[in-house]
Design a protein that fits this description.
Blueprint lengths: L5 E5 L2 H13 L4 E5 L12 E5 L7 H17 L4 E5 L16 H12 L4 E4 L7 E4 L2 E4 L2 E2 L18 H6 L5 E5 L1 H4 L3 H13 L2 E6 L4 H7 L8 E4 L28 E6 L4 H12 L3 E4 L2 H5 L4 H9 L8 E4 L4 H11 L1 H21 L2 E7 L1 H10 L4 E9 L2 E6 L12 E6 L8 H9 L1
Parallel strand pairs: 1-3, 1-4, 2-3, 4-11, 5-10, 5-11, 9-10, 12-14, 12-15, 13-14, 15-18
Antiparallel strand pairs: 2-16, 6-7, 7-8, 16-17, 17-18
Helix pairs in contact: 2-3, 10-12, 11-12, 12-13
The protein binds adenosine-5'-diphosphate (ADP).
């Protein structure tokens, strides 16, 4: 093998998929690993994204996990490391802890003996732009976007130089849009100037994909890049890679088709309705019956068994806000969530045992539970269904599937995807 060039460390699961999807679209073949793998990389790819769950944990723990991922990526031969965080730049915040993006960045710089890196969450495709060091979410500053009220990771300052400086011992500076607009040479010159001023980390302005593409070449020799998923579009070219359908090629899909949904987001409610209105075979599961001790997973699998050989089936707990609130009021928010996640994960497992090899999962937390129940540790990233949601492929042994050529799986978090997502997904694969 020995072709791996880019090793990525993502601080959460859906963020990892988002990054992997961008890299694939820019021409890289990518595997996403769930957690730090225990075994060597077993695929011929250009990049690996290790998905951690470190965004809201204590800095010391986030550092330990990230360094673990780094060591594994280095052992696989990665030539450049990409630390990926959220495009809203938020992470653990307790008042005392000002965030863990800075501490993780500095620990990676130490480990890589890297004297300079960049930081930019800019992702124009997703309406996250950075101008004069200030992060905008859509048309407003980050601290007016609702993120100032986030229950876990509030962001009350949009000035990223200040935000990151508060998390770092190294000095933080800015590469602003006037420099970025002039391209590679100007950016490199600015980096040399910042270094001479004792600055080791620079926030970089970017308001368009063109800015990110201009930034790419200036990052070619950096051992470490830190960013949201946007910067990824400018990196594959540094390794001689350009967009191609080869990058998203997966083994041919076969086997039966199913959708499981534990997402109650608005988009998912529309997708469930659309699937039913098209005449799809669908079964709702009721959290209150799970709580009453009924084995709804067994019921759902018995319902699916005679149908799934003929057409795609959908099993869902998806419900509208009022119904969800009422269930949560009776069972407790966490208890209800965990109970439904367990049931849907058992249904996903059972469907694969029935021969399903093309599985769509709706819901971020639900996806985590299903991937775990299926024993999936690594997935190759394939073609995009809708923005941010690609088909993935896990090998047969990884999915504990007894026969066949592995499982194609699409993990859709809450508000992603058009109304026809549950139908469109299977046509993309066909
Ligand atoms: P999303 O990506 O839309 O946020 P998640 O799967 O991350 O979806 O979260 C949805 C949560 O709601 C999960 O914990 C799930 O188990 C729970 N849930 C699903 N259906 C119901 C329901 N009908 N009532 C209460 N909770 C539910």
């Amino acid at each position: 093998m020995g072709k791996l060039v880019l090793g990525c460390i993502a601080d959460d699961f859906t963020g990892a998929t988002d990054l992997a999807n961008n890299l694939v679209r820019a021409g890289m073949r990518v595997v996403q690993a769930i957690g730090v793998p225990a075994t060597p990389l077993d695929a011929d790819v250009d990049a690996v994204v290790v998905a951690l769950k470190s965004r809201t944990i204590a800095p010391a723990e986030a550092i330990a996990q990230s360094l673990d991922a780094l060591r594994w990526l280095q052992a696989q031969g990665a030539r450049q490391i990409y630390f990926k965080y959220c495009s809203t730049f938020d992470s653990t915040f307790t008042g005392e802890v000002r965030g863990n993006i800075g501490p993780v960045t500095e620990a990676l710089m130490d480990a890589l003996q890297c004297d300079f890196t960049i930081a930019t969450p800019a992702f124009p495709d997703n309406k996250r732009t950075v101008f004069k060091g200030y992060l905008f979410a859509g048309d407003v500053l980050l601290n007016e976007s609702g993120m100032q009220n986030h229950p876990l990771t509030p962001m009350t300052d949009a000035n990223l130089v200040r935000v990151l400086q508060a998390q770092c011992t190294r000095k933080v500076g800015l590469i602003d849009h006037t420099v970025v607009a002039r391209g590679d040479a100007a950016i490199s010159e600015r980096i040399a100037q910042l270094k001479s001023e004792g600055i080791s980390i620079a926030i970089v302005d970017a308001v368009s994909n063109d800015d990110l593409l201009r930034l790419g070449p200036a990052l070619a020799k950096m051992p470490l890049v830190t960013a949201g998923s946007g910067v990824a579009i400018g990196l594959p070219a540094n390794f001689g890679l350009s967009p191609s359908s080869q990058a998203s090629a997966l083994p041919a899909a076969s086997g039966l088709r199913a959708v499981v949904s534990g997402s109650c987001s608005l988009a998912t409610n529309r997708q469930v309705l659309d699937f039913i209105q098209r005449g799809g075979a669908a079964l709702a599961i009721d959290p209150l019956r799970i709580a009453a001790g009924v084995d709804v997973a067994a019921e759902a699998l018995a319902w699916a068994a005679p149908l799934v050989g003929k057409q795609p089936v959908l099993v869902y707990s998806t419900a509208e806000a009022g119904a969800v609130k009422s269930v949560q009021g009776r069972l407790g928010v966490e208890e209800a969530g965990a109970m439904v996640e367990r049931a849907i994960a058992a249904i996903a497992r059972g469907l694969v045992d029935q021969g399903v090899r093309q599985l769509v999962v709706a819901g971020g937390e639900t996806s985590g539970a299903c991937v775990q129940a299926l024993g999936i540790a690594q997935m190759q990233i394939g073609p995009q269904i809708d923005p941010g949601v690609p088909w993935c492929h896990a090998r047969a042994e990884a999915a504990k599937a007894e026969q066949g050529a592995g499982v194609h799986i699409a993990l859709k978090s809450g508000n992603f995807g058009g109304d026809d997502f549950f139908t469109k997904a299977f046509t993309v694969l066909a």
